[in-house]
Amino acid sequence: MLITKDINLRMKAKSLGLKSEDYESDKVKNIEILHHGVETFEGFDKTIIEALYKDGQVSRSEFPMTDEQLPANQYMILKNANQSVLAWFDPNAQSVRRVEKHSAFGIEPRNAEQAFSLHALMNTDVTLVSLTGKAGTGKTLLALAAALQQHKQYNQILLARPIMPLANRDLGFLPGDINEKIGPYMQPLFDNLGVIKNRFPQQSKELNIIEEMQKRDELVITPLAYIRGRSLSDVFFIIDEAQNLTPHEVKTIITRAGEGTKMVFTGDIHQIDSPYLDMQSNGLAYLTDKMKGQDIFAHVNLIKGERSFLAELASDLL
Fold it and tell me: Sheet containing 262-267: which strands, arranged edge to edge?
């Protein structure tokens, strides 16, 4: 019997008549949990919708959902005829509250899921967030914009991603110092920062804030390779492409969190480059499955792509 996560090795073993299996203990049983970061309820009681608009909140005891339907920090779209409202369950106040759309550092939410994402990212009671969704839904951009909006609350903003080239095809030797070597891998993060910078005119206050933060190392883009052993206090930490991390690596990263730190994991479980991970065994899915229902955790699955019509079409059809 051979047990390995390497699918190529399993296939070779089977061709030789040797029984082989994948690891099962670290796999998410129900992958649908990642697609239910937002629930939509049709034909909802209009009196509750009206109360949410009037008072901004409704007590948990007056809300008709079961505990299974209403875990901590559950985001919802409540609809009745021509009425609809964005809402979330606040586990601390034990009430359902209305979610209003707010911008963050020049980035405006374009749909309900983006509004929910910004709400979770700006909620100081939520210290662990996972954002999933296909390419172009705005996961990393929203996380970075929310971090910049709250820069006074944190000593440092860290952006990191695993060094994992497309289709696991290494770039090979790269010249230069360490920053020049990791630059190609970190470029997507610089691209998102560039999108935010382009929102503001030259010499604006916002651009000066970003430049000053970079000069003082308060806004740092770094690989994840050097995270072990660190202790991160009062840090807003964004981990991009988290679907290429193992559950053990995700645990290692989260256990670096000190007091006042917020961690945000973003990724698309349909774009996994690691040969040893799949939709059920990657760290992002594992994190969302294990943390669901915790008071300090929120998950949003973004559906609609906002990058461009071309990107949305390719994501849907290819």
Answer: 219-223, 156-161, 235-239, 262-267, 128-133, 297-302
Q: What is the pLDDT of residues 117-126, one digit of tens each?
A: 999 999 999 9
Phi, psi of 44 (to 5 degrees): -80, 155
**What would the mean pLDDT of 261-286 be, rounded to a whole number?**
89
User: What one-character-per-residue DSSP string does 253-268 give?
Assistant: HHTTB-TT-EEEEEE-
Q: Are 139 and 114 in contact (CB under 8 A)?
A: no
- The pair phi, psi for residue 15, each rounded to 5°, is -65, -20
User: Do residues 132 and 240 touch, judged by C-beta distance below 8 A?
Assistant: no
134: left (phi > 0), else alpha (psi -120 to 50), else beta?
A: beta
Q: Check residue 31 and report its DSSP letter.
A: G
**Long-range contacts of 42-45, Cβ-Cβ distance < 8 Å, separation of 24 or more:** 42/79, 42/80, 43/79, 43/80, 44/78, 44/79, 44/80, 45/80
Q: 191-202: b or e for each residue (b if 16 or more CB lie within 10 Å)?
A: ebbebbeeebee
Task: Give yes or no for a contact between 263 and 253, defined as CB atoms under 8 angstroms apart.
Answer: yes
Q: Enumerate long-range contacts of 210-214, CB under 8 Å, 24 or more apart.
A: 210/148, 213/151, 213/157
Rounded CA-CA distance 199/188 in Å is: 17
Q: In the 8-state DSSP scheme, what is residue 99?
A: P
User: CA-to-CA distance for 119 and 113, rounded, in angstroms?
Assistant: 10
CB 51 within 8 A of CB 44: no
Above 80 in pLDDT, residue 288? Answer: yes
Q: How far apart are CA 149 and CA 151, in angstroms?
A: 6
